[in-house]
Design brief:
By secondary structure, this protein is an all-alpha fold. The protein has one domain. The protein contains ten helices and no strands. The longest helix has 25 residues.
């Protein structure tokens, strides 16, 4: 019973709509009505600028890291790896389907990164390098997120991690979810219509699709 309470608590932590609250508090902007309408870090960067988006990214990562890293300490450890995965999955689900905003949210990339920062930091570093390389060379944040998610499962298998084989399965499921969440981006990439990353204040026609 205690483990289920902590799974629910992880969902509550993950559901914190960081970008929405930062946009409202410091810019008077509702990100649900700006750019892509997505409450993820990319839309926050495009609409609010990097100074406001940076703390959004940090908090969104912590929303995934803290439940996985700290909750087991509070309950004296989890009885099996499945509970550890459930806590991480609940945090990601909270970010993507936040009850604060009608079960909307971001696409879960930063919060998922926080989960794997706790479970498999070396594999996360590999995925981060892939993301940086793709975004730097192509300018497509969405493509970087997709390819980083695809790179994560083999990186988990080949590097030390917590949670045993269940973490590899979780990484596979997460990769599939990230691809699904970016399905509209994939269609635009195929048509050559996806927007490249631009700084705030630059030409943003069609921006905000991430």
């Amino acid at each position: 019973m205690t483990e289920w309470l902590f799974v629910f608590a992880a969902y509550l932590v993950g559901s914190t709509p960081t970008s929405l609250w930062v946009g409202r508090a410091f810019h008077g902007v509702d990100l649900r009505r700006e750019g892509s309408g997505n409450l993820g870090a990319t839309n926050a960067f495009r609409i609010l600028g990097w100074r406001s988006a940076l703390p959004v990214v940090v908090v969104d990562i912590l929303k995934g890291w803290a439940p996985v890293a700290l909750f087991p300490l509070l309950i004296g450890g989890v009885p099996n790896d499945g509970w550890l995965i459930a806590i991480g999955a609940a945090a990601v689900a909270g970010h993507v389907f936040s009850f604060w905003v009608g079960f909307r949210g971001g696409k879960g990339v930063a919060t998922s990164a926080g989960v794997f920062l706790a479970l498999a930091p070396t594999a996360l570093l590999v995925a981060l390098v892939v993301w940086l390389a793709v975004v730097a060379t192509s300018g497509y944040v969405s493509l970087g997120s997709i390819l980083a998610a695809v790179a994560l499962p083999p990186a988990v298998m080949l590097t030390p991690h917590r949670g045993g084989g269940a973490v590899t399965l979780f990484a596979l499921g997460l990769a599939g979810f990230v691809i699904w969440a970016h399905r509209s981006n994939i269609r635009r990439l195929a048509r050559g219509e996806e927007s490249r990353f631009r700084r705030r204040g630059a030409d943003t026609r069609g921006a905000g699709h991430e």
